[in-house]
Structure formats: C-alpha cells, structure tokens
Amino acid sequence: MTTLQAQAPAVRPRAAARTGLHAVLGANAAVVAVLFAQAGFGSNALILLGRLTGLYAALVLAFQLLLVARLPWFDRRLGMDRLTAWHRVTGISVVWLLVAHVVFITTGYAQLASLPPLDELVHLATTVEGVLRAVVAVVLVLVVGGASARWARRRLAYETWHFIHLYAYLAVVLAFSHQVAAGTTFTSSPLATAYWWALWGAALAAVLVGRVGLPLWRNLRHRLRVAAVVPESDDVVSIHITGRDLDKLPARAGQFFLWRFLERGRWWQANPFSLSAAPDGRSLRLTAKALGAGSASLRSLKPGTRVFAEGPYGAFTALHRTRPNALLIAGGVGVTPVRALLEEIGGHAVVVYRVSERRDAVLLDELRGLARAKGAVLHVVTGATADHAPDAQPLGARALGAAVPDVRERDVFVCGPSRMTDAVLASLRELGVPANQVHAERFTLAR
Q1: Which residue range or ranges hold the FAD-binding FR-type domain (predicted)?
Q2: What is 223-313's CATH superfamily?
Q3: pLDDT per residue over 426-435, tens digit each?
C-alpha cells in the first residue's frame, strides 16, 4: 500500500506573492528615483523635497490600488485580510507623504516669493493649473484616512464607511490630473511621461479587472440562484446555491464570497460569508448566523432569487499545506470554512471546535459524520473562559498540547472571533509551532 503525503512546495505560495509585491514596489521606487534625478535639481531644497515626496506619494497611491484590486493570484496566496492590512499601512504612508509634499512645496515657493505659506498656497491654487485639484485630492485623502482610523471605524456603520472610502478613487483621479498638469518630473522627458501613464494605467486596470470585470464575467457565466434555504437552528441558516458550469468556478474549501441577493431592499448589501461545504461543481453552500440585520433576514430568502457573488476570496485553503497532517481550530460560526476544509483536506486531521455551550455548535452533526468518514479526531470545547487563570484556558498552550501532542508536526488552521484567534496564535507560538505552518483567518461579519 502506498501512502500519499502532502509535500511542501519548493516555493511557498505566500512567500512567492509577498516577494513579488515587494519586488514590484522596490523596482518602481528605483525607477522613480532615477526619473527624479534626470529631471534636474533646483536651488531650493524645500521644493526639491516637495517634488520627491509628491512622486513617492503617487507611487504608493498606485500601489494601494493594486493591493485592493482583488486579483485572484495575489488573493489566493495572501488573503484579503493580509492585503487589507498592507493597504492600511500604505494608506498611512500616503497621508504623511501628501502632507509633506504640500508643506514642502508651499513653504519653498513662499520663501522665493517672500509670502506667508498660507498666502502662497492660495496663490498657487488660484493661478497654477492643477494645484486646486491637488488640494481637493489631499483633503479627500485626509477625510478617507480619518474615517479609516480604528476609533472612527468602531463608530461608523459599514455602509457609511464604505461610501466615504469610495471618495479615494476621486482623489486618485484628481491627484493624477495634477501630476499631468503641474508635475515637473512627469513632463521632463518622454520616458518619464510614458512611465507614469503606464503606472497609473496598470493600477486602474487592475482595479477594473479585479473589482468589476471579473465579477461581472463570472456572474454572467454562472447565473447563480438560491436553490434552498435550510434552517440549521433558531439563529443559523444555510443557503444552497446553484448555477451553470460551477465546476469551472475556481472556488476552494475555506474561501468566501461577497454575496448580494438580488431582491428589493437587499440587492445593494454585500455580505462576506464563507463556503460551509467544499465546492462539488454542482452547488455552493453558505451558512450564516444572525449577527446583524443582513444575516438575520437570510431566512426569508425565496428559492429562485438571483445571486451576485464576488469571489472566491481568501487564502484559508489547502494550497498552503506544508505538512501531511493538520489541526483545524474553529470558534463559533467560524466553523463554516473549517467544516468545508475538513471535507477537502488530506492526511490525518484533528478538529477543535470552541463554543460557549454545546447547543451553539453549528453543523456539529456534519462535523461528526465527516470525522468518522475521514478518521479524524473531533474535540468540542465548551464552557466559559477564565481570564484570571491562564493555565486553565480551554485553548491555551497546555490544553492544546495535551489534546494534540504532535501539534508542532501539523499545519494549523484557525478561524474564529478575533479575541479567540489571538489567544490561539499566542498558544501556538508558546508551543513552538513554526509560523509557516500556522494559517489564520479572522471571522468578522461586516456590519
């Protein structure tokens, strides 16, 4: 008898994608520096710094568009969570670079004209083509950045935050038009002009392809509809979806879609739900708990309702396996991608399912059946968490080490509420599980 084992790829998918993004950013940063030098240096150091910070603000802004373009190759390898986190970090960089650009340029020209900086800014905005558009772009970026701060996100409804965030695209257009009209480096040579047009064209094309073109094409091709609505408990419901040529939809167990159900009063709402069963080429299934108005109303969906789905998204898949055996840890309704992953994954698996009470264990009967069929071990962990007793934590290092003694020899997939996920990741570090064997997805339902 021959035993097949999962082999770690020569180059890990996540490392390849991360290296690729760093290489793209680094190469473009070098090109910008060369073009900046070729444009020549003026006598005013502040204006020189203003030009340089403006160019790098434009580069990072274009890179931000690539991060949120949802291109499948990057998303499958890095995951939307990681790409969004990088987008947030680069967004902070854009804000500071733009502020520095305005301050340096305004102060430099104010020195030459012997005017107060604010008066010089007004003069530039009213007399130099493109500067007023740049001022508006900076204001929009500051508003979007402020709305994206953690303290603001906690207070804003998701729909409000998303609407404000859309103004970032207007800021991009205004910033580029300013660069075309007033950018010294942009017009310094045909090579520089061609480079900036190509950079912005590629960034905007990536967004149009990933966020508009690909979702439209897939939905026209697959024509998704609700096939059945199945209550799993008082507050949990499964939606079965059918369509055409679903065997050609590149979805994997562990991934999620942004779902829109095309009926009156609901079509504009897009909610992220993971697949709760491995795709079989004939149908898709999502399972949702009533955590908000959008998910609570799913129970009233009618079979035959048209569905518009964006995705699949996420790197929480077997693509990132490095070991033949796995440990799957789920918390609450975060069990949905874990249940799908258990169905697909090979090798020996241990499943740890954390819930407050056994009655909260969604899809438990299915998990038991899958565990029996695949020879997996299933642990259902219940009870309250004792914050004051670290050694008694249900998912602490001691408990996990006792339940899975060979945890360091397994891939570990974790999906659940942020607090639980953070605690599990800390336990895995304490147990010495290598970072490349840990795969986490934080389950947070968009409000």
Answers
A1: 219-319
A2: Translation factors (2.40.30.10)
A3: 999 999 999 9
